[in-house]
Specification:
With 242 residues, this protein is an alpha+beta fold. The chain has one domain: Aminohydrolase, N-terminal nucleophile (Ntn) domain (Glutamine Phosphoribosylpyrophosphate, subunit 1, domain 1, 4-Layer Sandwich), CATH 3.60.20.10. It is 33% helix and 26% strand. It has a five-stranded antiparallel β-sheet, with helices on one face.
């Protein structure tokens, strides 16, 4: 490691690549056979939903292997990333958690260097880049499929961002005020389709999310665990929902 940094930008990831390449690799050379894939823990159902004052994000707490073997019933799939954004993770559990933690560090580092936080779209783009870096692993059966939400302090509204395995980013338009991912995602989405209404209160939106996750757990054995983790993101910031 050099005494003087060669990289002068505000990206923590680029700093590691430039000055400490031994600590990070762009495209990990992962070789996974089909038998090993069945032993790797996976996170399952995650959801996001807009309401009158912002957006909520949540997920179940079960991790499975091979889609049916329960590995853990109390994992954490929802993380605060900064004061006005949060992420939920689905897909291969280990890389997903690392990505969530790295995004937290990336946003904190940017704000310390620049003196102000990224825009919400800028934060979503940072996550897109991380998903893109994971693409070679995803092609070997180790995908990371996050949902990212935030409160836009300039537009004064909550926003939902979803991703494909290549890092493609999709902002949910107003007429599509919810999103799901994971093995129980389709079932959760059908609950939203039937019961969602415009400008719900926080209480109403939380109850609907619980209903969606419960329905998913009844139809999808990979969804379940010890309750749910739900966070709200509003003008007040990120708050845990009991």
């Amino acid at each position: 490691m050099g005494i003087f940094n060669q990289y002068n930008g505000s990206s923590f990831i680029q700093l590691l690549k430039s000055d400490y390449p031994e600590l990070v690799s762009d495209y990990p050379k992962i070789v996974i056979d089909s038998k090993s894939l069945g032993l790797i823990p996976e996170g399952t159902t995650i959801t996001a939903l807009k309401f009158a004052d912002g957006v909520i994000i949540g997920g179940d707490r079960r991790a499975t292997a091979g889609g049916h073997l329960i590995v853990n019933e109390s994992v954490v799939k929802v993380f605060k990333t900064d004061d006005y954004s949060a992420i939920a993770i689905a897909g291969t559990f280990g890389p997903s958690v690392k990505m969530a933690k790295l995004l937290q560090t990336e946003l904190e580092h940017y704000e310390k260097i620049e003196g102000f936080p990224l825009t919400l779209e800028g934060k979503a783009t940072k996550l897109s880049y991380m998903v893109e870096l994971n693409f070679p692993a995803a092609m070997q059966g180790l995908p990371v499929m996050p949902l990212f939400v935030g409160y836009d302090i300039y537009e004064k509204t909550g926003k939902i961002f979803e991703y494909d395995i290549t890092g493609g980013t999709f902002t949910k338009p107003r007429q599509e005020p919810y999103s799901t991912s994971g093995s129980g995602g389709d079932r959760a989405a059908s609950t939203f389709e039937h019961f969602f209404k415009e400008d719900m209160s926080l209480k109403e939106s939380v109850e609907l999310m619980k209903k969606a996750l419960t329905f998913a757990s009844k139809k999808d054995t990979a969804t379940g665990g010890k309750g749910y983790i739900i966070k709200s993101v509003t003008a007040k910031g990120v708050e845990d929902i009991e």
